Amino acid sequence: MAVKLNELMNSGSILEAKKSNRPGVLKTIIAKITDYLPNRNGRIYPRKIWEKACNSDLVKEQVACNCFFGEANHPFDDRMDIDLTNVSHAISKLDIRDDGVYGTIDILDTPSGGIIDKLLEYGSKIGISSRGCGSLDDATNTVQDDYQLFAFDIVARPSVAAARLTESEELMKQGKIIMTESEIKSVLNNYRNNVLNESGYTLNERENVANNIISRLIKESQELNRR
After folding, report:
1. Residue 131 DSSP class
2. Are 69 and 48 in contact (CB under 8 A)?
3. Residue 128 φ/ψ, nearest 5 degrees
């Protein structure tokens, strides 16, 4: 039976990160999204699973149309479709290699994308997490070939998480690995005051966008720290 599978990826470091001059794009990141080892949830995604998932007609069509979107955080319900009001990025290219899956990620000039961009500039380590459904072999905890990929979301991860993106390796060396609750609020409140104010949103809409993402980031970090 197919089940919802949200997975924190075993990600490597960013290969390239640069600001973009393309309309609607704040920054483009080229990164290793995942390898083929057991992930943080102990599940195994063999290379053939990722080859099939990333080359499905649905994913190829979305990439070709610049519509392979992801959100800031996984949705808290079981939906697989994308909420356009929370889109933060788009995957413009997926590359299956011997050591893992690599992707080109465009951080979009949206309210959620702007927050991700600010967190990256701050030096925060941001995780890549897949959203999909499929069945599992209970004996080996291996994902089966009916797996369907719907999105790669960007999520907040504390220092215990294995998969993260960071724009600043130097900050990582200095031990700046995660943001505290007060730091999250400070960065996002600054973003709300300086960027969302110029976006055309009403005051209530600006408050709702910022407060929703703040609460999601804090809740997810708290849940992971309890594990």
Report:
1. E
2. no
3. -105, 130
In the chain, what are the helix, strand and coil shares in percent, each to the nearest 5?
35, 30, 35
> What letters, b where the CB count within 10 A reaches 16 and e where it falls short, cover 58-82?
ebeebbeeeebbbbbbbbeeeeeeb
Domain boundaries, the chain: 3-169
CA distances from 136 to 40, 44, 98 (A): 15, 9, 23
Alpha carbon distance 140, 65 (integer Å): 37
Element (H, E) at 54: helix 47-54
Range name among 34-43, 60-69, 113-122 with the lowest pLDDT average: 34-43
What is the model's pTM? 0.68
Q: What sign results for the dihedral spanned by CA atoms 178, 94, 44, 80?
A: positive
* Residues 183-220: tens digit of each pLDDT: 555 555 655 555 455 555 666 766 676 666 666 655 65
Q: What is the longest distance spanned by two Cα atoms in the chain?
A: 54
CA neighbor of 99 nearest in space, from 37, 9, 154: 37
Distance in angstroms (rounded) separating the CA atoms of residues 132 and 58: 12
- For residue 93, give Cα distances in angstroms to 20, 33, 105, 167: 16, 11, 8, 19
Q: Do residues 41 and 57 lie in contact, with contact meaning Cβ atoms separated by under 8 Å?
A: no
Return the pLDDT at 82. 86
* Three-state SS at 145: coil
What does the alpha-carbon distance between residue 44 and residue 141 come to, in Å, rounded to a whole number? 6
